[in-house]
Amino acid sequence: MLNRRAGLSWLCAVVFSLLWAAPMEAQAPIQVRAGDTVVRGGSWIDVERGVAVRNTAMIVRDGVIMAIGADVGGADLSAAHVMNLTADEYILPGIFDLHAHYAVDLFGAGRIDEFHVNPVLYLANGVTSTFPAGEVDPAGMKHARELIDNGQQVGPRIYNSGPYFGSARPGWNNALETPERIRAEVDYWAANGARDFKGKGIHPEQLQALIDEAHKHGLTVTGHLDSGFRDSVNPRDAILMGIDRIEHFMGGDTMPATRSAYASLQEMDVNSPDELAEMKLFIRQHVFYDATLSTYGNYNYGHRDPKVFAPWTDEEQYLTPYARTVVTEGLKTKKPNEQFSKIYSVKRKEIKRFYDVGGRDWITLGTDLPSWGENLDGFADHRELRAFVAAGIPPKDALRFATINGARALNVANKLGSIDVGKYADLFVVRGNPLADIENAHKVQWIMKSGQVYDSAELLASVVGKMGPAGPDDADAWKGRMHVIEPVAQPPDALPSIPLGVAPARGGRGAGGRNGGAPVVQP
Fold first, then answer.
1. How far apart are CA 466 and CA 359, in angstroms?
2. pLDDT band at 4 (very low <50, low <70, confident <90, very high)
3. DSSP letters along 221-258, please?
4. pLDDT at 479
5. Of the candidates 286, 212, 291, which has an alpha carbon nearest to the alpha carbon of residue 250?
6. Cys staple from 183: which of 101, 213, 315, 394, with CB 3.0 to 4.6 Å?
7. Which domain holds residue 381?
8. Position 402 in a domain
9. pLDDT attached to residue 372
């Protein structure tokens, strides 16, 4: 019987002999073609390993990364689009925002979805994929996604969430929304392009129906849940139901059903055994956690954390002059939300502990900023990156949360989320190494989405003064235009949330369990 050392020597000899007998063929070099984009110089960020790699040449063809580290020294590049980077420029995969509200409320009179300026701001900041996490105007957001997909509007990929499932949706009636109705509505929205769903203010039996039906379509479900208080759902119970992602609250026994999640969270001990048990449940069940750190700090008017909220640009310049006047006047009366200030402090400690106990691969980036005008959604992703780092997360892993983790959470990591041969060319270039200083991540020079190149400064300049009404006569359209979808009048048992005259679609888009089988319309 061979001893361990002899066995290893024998194995190495066999492997060497096989390699010698059947040597690998050298891979033929990629030939640069007309229409290719060749990116030379600089470095690219490997978000899987958390390192910067010197870039010789990256070749993009038909929106796909064809080669990394290519040698094009003797190649004829006259028919290609060549982009030369400086030594201090870095290429990153596009950011995923999994709580990317397009909603604005400039008058304090209710949210509307704004899908003309917001998409440009997201893309200009390197955000190439967004999940709205509940849409105020689902029909409008669907149309916005179609315009972007067809090249008629500039913006990131939109993974439509459809309407909220729960009391967060205007017109929701718990007495009417039976599990059967929810299943039929999931079928309808899945057939109309929704890629994932969100429950907020939802009851247990309704959430179970939402999860089960979404998974039949291979789609995922996330939830802004509570503690179990007043027939809400504790995230722990949602995880056991099979939910894929959780927003805001980790839940568990640290959030008893005798009071709201917010009341528990503001005084939570993140080092308690109950909290550790809940964190381990997330990891064991492979459930993604979207902490939305910066949104809580955002409510602390006048006392915001400078490490996160120090401005690097004038975001209000994208408002119309009239809207800017309204927003500036409204800020004079805004006061800090003391509860959210406490929660912000707790959540920073919570996310660091979750990271430390093994949650690195299950944290995603989401901003949850329905804007009131002084801070705009497209810039919020960089505040969230800052918040992660301020909490003690290394920049390399903050960037991981924002890229490959988000792609995995949406089941599109085979095509997006990292810089790899064969993946779609969703990239952005910044000046300065973001692994050394996360501040460099917002110094965006240009963006590439599906191989199409955009100059960040030009995108931003194109929407200066464009968001909001031109004057008082146009203001009513921006005040609480909550798009309640009209109910079907006949038959009497039709869904209250399906548009007039449209029958619910059933089945037909393929089966898949949790995290599988999603139809690929756009990755």
1. 41
2. very low
3. EEEE--SSGGG---HHHHHHHT-SEEES---GGGS-TT
4. 87
5. 291
6. 213
7. 94-420+458-470
8. yes
9. 87
From 154, 157, 162, 156, select the one nearest 137 (Cα to Cα). Answer: 162
For residue 186, what are the CA distances in angstroms to 193, 487, 507?
11, 15, 10
- Would you state the pLDDT for residue 469? 95
Q: Is 109 exposed, middle or buried (0-12, 13-18, 19+ CB in 10 A)?
A: middle
Amino acid found at 518: A
Q: How many structural domains is the chain composed of? A: 1
Q: What is the pTM of this model?
A: 0.87
511 phi-psi bin (left φ>0, alpha ψ -120 to 50, beta other)? beta
Phi, psi of 371 (to 5 degrees): -75, 140
Query: Are the CB atoms for 377 and 121 separated by under 8 Å?
Result: yes
Q: Would the pLDDT of 6 be above 50?
A: no
Closest CA to 440 of 448, 432, 429, 451: 432
Model confidence pLDDT, tens digit, residues 388-444: 999 999 999 999 999 999 999 999 999 999 999 999 999 999 999 999 999 999 999
Binned at pLDDT 50, 70 and 90, residue 369 comes out as confident
Q: Strand pairing partners for 67?
A: 59
DSSP string, 121-170: HHHHTTEEEE--SS-SSHHHHHHHHHHHHTTSS---EE----S-BSTTST
Q: Which domain CATH number covers 375?
A: 3.20.20.140
Amino acid at 355: Y
What is the chain's Cα-based Rg? 24
Composition of the chain by helix, strand, coil, percent to 5: 35, 15, 50
How far apart (Å, rounded) are the C-alpha atoms in residues 243 and 112? 28
Contact 374, 327 (CB under 8 A): yes
Residue 39 lies in a domain: no
Q: Does residue 491 have a cis peptide bond before it, meaning omega lies within 30 degrees of 0?
A: yes
Render pLDDT for 293-330 as a digit per residue (tens, 0 to 9).
998 888 876 678 888 989 999 999 999 999 999 999 98
Q: Please check whether residue 448 lies inside any domain of the structure.
A: no
Q: How far apart are CA 249 and CA 508, in angstroms?
A: 34
What pLDDT does 29 receive?
65
51 φ, ψ (degrees, to nearest 5): -135, 160
Taking phi over 0 as left and psi of -120 to 50 as alpha, with beta for the rest, 249 belongs to beta
